[in-house]
Amino acid sequence: MDKSRIKVGYFISHPIQYQVPLQCFLASSGLDFKVFYFSDQSVRSGSVDREFGCQVKWDVSLLDNYPYEFLSRRPNDEFKHFSIPDPEAFFQREQLDVAMVHGYAGGFVPQLIRWKKRFHYKMLLRGEFTEWRETPPNPLKHLCRFVYLHWLYPQIDAFGAIGECAKEHLRHFRVPENKIFFAPYSVDDAMFERQKQELDREECRKSLNIQPDEMVFLFSGKLIPRKRALLLARAFCRCASSFRAKIIFLGSGEQEQELHRLLGEALADRCILPGFVNQSQLGRYFRAADVFVLPSSFDAWGLVVNEAMHFGLPAIVSDNCCCGVDLIKEGQTGYRFAVDDLDALTDCLRKCLENPSQVREMGRNAAGLIQNYTIRKTGEGILSAIKHIMELKQP
Length: 395
Known about the structure:
Layout: E1 7-12, H1 20-27, E2 32-37, E3 48-49, E4 54-55, E5 68-70, H2 87-94, E6 98-102, H3 108-119, E7 122-127, H4 139-152, E8 158-161, H5 164-172, E9 180-182, H6 189-198, H7 201-207, E10 215-220, H8 229-239, E11 245-250, H9 256-267, E12 271-275, H10 282-288, E13 291-294, H11 303-310, E14 315-318, H12 323-327, E15 334-337, H13 342-354, H14 356-369, H15 375-393
Parallel strand pairs: 1-2, 1-6, 2-5, 6-7, 7-8, 8-9, 10-11, 10-13, 11-12, 13-14, 14-15
Antiparallel strand pairs: 3-4
Helix pairs in contact: 1-15, 7-10, 8-9, 8-13
């Protein structure tokens, strides 16, 4: 496969910190690669993230080291209405071989399907495919999604599966196995591995007033109901008084004040609540921690678990976080618990508190497992899918 002749357009809603390292990898792989965005909200000065409840400007570069173009600059919440302006002129100009898409809900996806035969490009679709949901779906929405995906998937030439739940979803819709390529969900592993090496664990703990014999649990994410930070706080309050332990909550959001009140009343001296912490500063907290916890009522993956495992942390996740199927080997890399089950989550915390040597062993196992979920592994999966696509284009 002569990659220098393959022109790939990557269509995605907006610059996303988790996607940029992959985009840089593909741009450096020899492809004629370009990203097309529909919103600039994540890089716009003064932009407010409604769920974080504050202005968010990422302190890692989102627009360097790969070619890109903004096709529009609409707000992120208009995702279903994103579209390619003057698509005929666009495709005549670009002459794509492959249109790669992240997710299937954008308004531009039917456009790409409509024009693909005329302009002779193939389509690669990757996204957070899953049949898991936080609550029973609205019957009408569920039916519309079912009909839409039955129309869409047969017209896609290859799929990038981020994990086992994604593969299960695609098989549910009868996608042939030879169209499914493992392109795992990954984070900027090089950045986190570098932070792990540069930061001294004991110095990080000392700077946060953590004693050597204290076990530290860590939560990182938006303080919104779906993430269930309050459930974790209650579980910690139940068991912490019997052990030397602390808990760190990284993030901000609508439940921040309630979290402060709950923990302040019970265990103010056991809690570290720094608020929103940017990407380049996360390492200090991950390096100081012993166990990561993601108790969400639903997560289509949960990339923060990847981040934690790069720092050698085992993870406790609810069984409605899709990453758990791939990343949590029970008692080996962490624990899974029944979603919203306070007793079960408390038991997981106690297991860790009672067995610090096992926590360290699980952390080593997690650090080994996550090496299968790197940007390079993701990129190689996508390149394999592109190779498959280009073979389909041969006369």
